[in-house]
């Protein structure tokens, strides 16, 4: 069947694409979509679980299909294809895009396998475990002023500086130098957003040029005086021929950019959801064995990374559609995590939910390398807040950042009652 319009007939497939793209536009552009994308995801899953948008991307929303995209060997990363399609043929003139394209996230086997093994060698369980007391000390350090004041901006005074200090301490960045990386890294992270503007791209280039210069100088210092930190371990790999100098630089940028803002947004999202669901807050307060599951449910319910991009290497049959080679797929993690086919009553926040197999850390070979430390850090933060405060109250409705890929707030104002 087809509908008649002033311009002629419109096929059912074209009409479906238009309706799905209307939902997609609301997700990408509207304040309502930024604040609460989940009803729109549900409509997309129902209306068009797999479809090619007029933007040129294939959009995938159900859990089973998103999981397939993340794991299938016919799908991977192609920086030239993605960057060229998104930014044009001169994309590599931008420092931020060159660095983004050279990261581990954009590599495929066998290069990805080699680099993943190298970073795993440096990012050992022993090194992560050794950070345990450091993370506890940092949590107390950043909570002390909030406790003394009876509250404040939990995001900017606690949830942001904590992960930044954690990942930079792990790397070996001196504490007094770490804060200078915050704004340049935030500017760089805008490159992951579909709605990146020309001005934001210039800011991202400036941010990347700053961090490139900084890490070049820091690597030179560590090369001259190695220490027990991750940068020194990575320098050993470079000197042994397992990493190139450019790959070493990329790792430094990648680990900082990936290692702090996602944890920031998970911590603030966790506090917001627990205060909005006081019965859940009391459950975890009374039973600390639920801390791990609480973090898992927060990651499922409102993940800090909502979107993941992949490219097809071969024809891929997915949900009844055949996606040709050299196509870009946008897998929507936030939608997959609320799919009722995978999670019964998915819009209910439930820290006792069993088998929370969320996709917030990705899946397959690109599963987040720092997930264990991030999870540990968030759990330590939650335990400390429960220990120190008998009451946690959000006193202002938080404003969501106008972003889609990386979901978070501008601030989170809270009132705290110390024990």
UniProtKB/TrEMBL annotation:
The keyword Oxidoreductase applies. SUPFAM superfamilies: Cytochrome P450. PROSITE patterns: CYTOCHROME_P450 (PS00086). Keywords: Heme, Iron, Metal-binding, Monooxygenase, Oxidoreductase. Pfam families: p450. Belongs to the cytochrome P450 family. This is Cytochrome P450. It comes from Streptomyces synnematoformans.
């Amino acid at each position: 069947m087809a509908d008649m319009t002033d311009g002629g007939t419109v096929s059912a497939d074209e009409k479906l694409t238009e309706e799905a793209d209307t939902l997609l536009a609301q997700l990408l552009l509207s304040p309502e979509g930024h604040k609460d994308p989940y009803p729109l995801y549900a409509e997309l899953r129902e209306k068009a679980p797999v479809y090619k948008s007029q933007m040129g991307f294939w959009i995938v929303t159900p859990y089973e299909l998103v999981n397939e995209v993340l794991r299938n060997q016919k799908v991977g990363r192609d920086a030239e294809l993605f960057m060229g399609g998104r930014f044009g043929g001169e994309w590599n003139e931008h420092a931020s895009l060159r660095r983004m394209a050279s990261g581990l996230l954009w590599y495929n086997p066998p290069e990805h396998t080699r680099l993943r093994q190298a970073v795993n060698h440096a990012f050992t369980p022993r090194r992560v475990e050794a950070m345990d007391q450091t993370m506890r000390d940092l949590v107390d350090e950043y909570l002390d002023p909030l406790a003394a004041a009876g509250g404040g901006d939990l995001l900017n005074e606690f949830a942001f500086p904590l992960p930044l200090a954690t990942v930079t301490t792990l790397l070996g960045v001196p504490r007094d130098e770490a804060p200078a990386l915050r704004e340049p890294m935030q500017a760089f992270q805008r490159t992951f957003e579909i709605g990146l503007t020309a001005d934001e791209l210039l800011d991202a280039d400036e941010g990347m040029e700053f961090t490139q210069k900084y890490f070049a100088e820091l690597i030179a210092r560590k090369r001259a005086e190695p220490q027990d930190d991750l940068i020194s371990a990575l320098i050993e790999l470079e000197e042994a021929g397992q990493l190139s100098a450019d790959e070493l630089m990329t790792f430094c940028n990648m680990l900082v950019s990936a290692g702090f803002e996602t944890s920031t947004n998970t911590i603030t999202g966790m506090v917001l959801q627990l205060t909005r669901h006081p019965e859940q807050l009391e459950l975890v307060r009374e039973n600390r064995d639920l801390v791990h599951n609480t973090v898992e449910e927060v990651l499922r319910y409102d993940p800090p990374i909502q979107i993941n991009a992949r490219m097809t290497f071969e024809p891929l049959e997915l949900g009844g559609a055949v996606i040709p080679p050299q196509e870009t797929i946008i897998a929507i993690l936030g939608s997959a995590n609320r799919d009722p086919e995978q999670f019964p009553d998915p819009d209910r926040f439930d820290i006792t939910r069993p088998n929370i197999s969320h996709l917030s850390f990705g899946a397959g070979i690109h599963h987040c390398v720092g997930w264990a430390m991030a999870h540990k850090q968030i759990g330590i933060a939650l335990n400390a807040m429960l220990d120190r405060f008998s009451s946690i109250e959000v006193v202002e409705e938080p404003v969501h950042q106008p972003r889609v890929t990386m979901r978070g707030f501008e601030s989170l104002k809270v009132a705290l009652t110390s024990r």
